[in-house]
């Protein structure tokens, strides 16, 4: 497969994964990772780094680290395609802005200023990494992105058949603690 075709396929596939996981989670399910009904929301969060004050160490780690990590491969693929760290970062930012706008306009998620920041930072880091490692890794990045895209499609097709609904725990209720796999009210 020629380099340009493989590069375009990898970048297009990974962008489709990003858009699907950020804006279309209301329309599909992978196991029981999320409830599609809970994804229909319209909310804007303008306060930077507000999750740091959520009272949970996990939420900022998951939100900020997840957004950063999610956009690193995009930055890598954009750099491989464009050969410019600045252009890769700007395109990563542009995709992030587009996702946040779509989420708000169509009530498909929560628009958050932190998402823009950490997505862009992830795209920049990915571009930096691809630049540092050089062209010798281009084919590796392409095939990894294509593999991620194929795995994602398989997971979507399998959908709710993955996992056991009886094993799903609702940890969002603040008045319940888990003891021996049984929710028990706090005293």
Automatic annotation (TrEMBL):
Domain VanZ-like, first and last residues per copy: 14-131
Q: Which domain of life is it from?
A: Bacteria
Keyword Transmembrane among UniProt keywords:
yes
Q: What InterPro entries does this protein map onto? A: Teicoplanin_resist-assoc, VanZ-like
Give the transmembrane ranges.
12-34, 61-80, 87-106, 140-159
Q: Which UniProt keywords are given for this protein, alphabetically ordered?
A: Membrane, Transmembrane, Transmembrane helix
Q: Which PANTHER family match?
A: INTEGRAL MEMBRANE PROTEIN, MEMBRANE PROTEIN-RELATED
Q: What is this protein called?
A: Antibiotic resistance protein VanZ
């Amino acid at each position: 497969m020629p380099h340009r075709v493989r590069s375009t396929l990898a970048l297009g596939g990974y962008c489709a994964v990003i858009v699907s996981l950020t804006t279309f989670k209301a329309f599909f399910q992978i196991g029981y990772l999320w409830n599609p009904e809970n994804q229909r929301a319209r909310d804007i969060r303008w306060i930077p780094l507000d999750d740091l004050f959520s009272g949970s160490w996990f939420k900022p780690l998951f939100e900020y680290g997840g957004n950063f990590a999610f956009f690193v491969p995009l930055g890598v693929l954009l750099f491989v395609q464009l050969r410019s760290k600045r252009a890769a970062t700007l395109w990563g930012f542009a995709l992030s802005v587009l996702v946040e706008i779509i989420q708000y306009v169509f009530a498909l998620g929560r628009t958050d200023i932190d998402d823009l920041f950490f997505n862009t930072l992830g795209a920049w880091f990915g571009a930096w990494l691809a630049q540092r490692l050089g062209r010798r890794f281009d084919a590796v990045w392409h095939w990894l992105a294509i593999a991620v895209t194929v795995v994602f499609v398989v997971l979507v097709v399998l959908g709710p058949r993955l996992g056991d609904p009886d094993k799903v725990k609702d940890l969002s209720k603040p008045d319940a603690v888990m003891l021996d796999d049984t929710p028990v009210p706090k005293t």
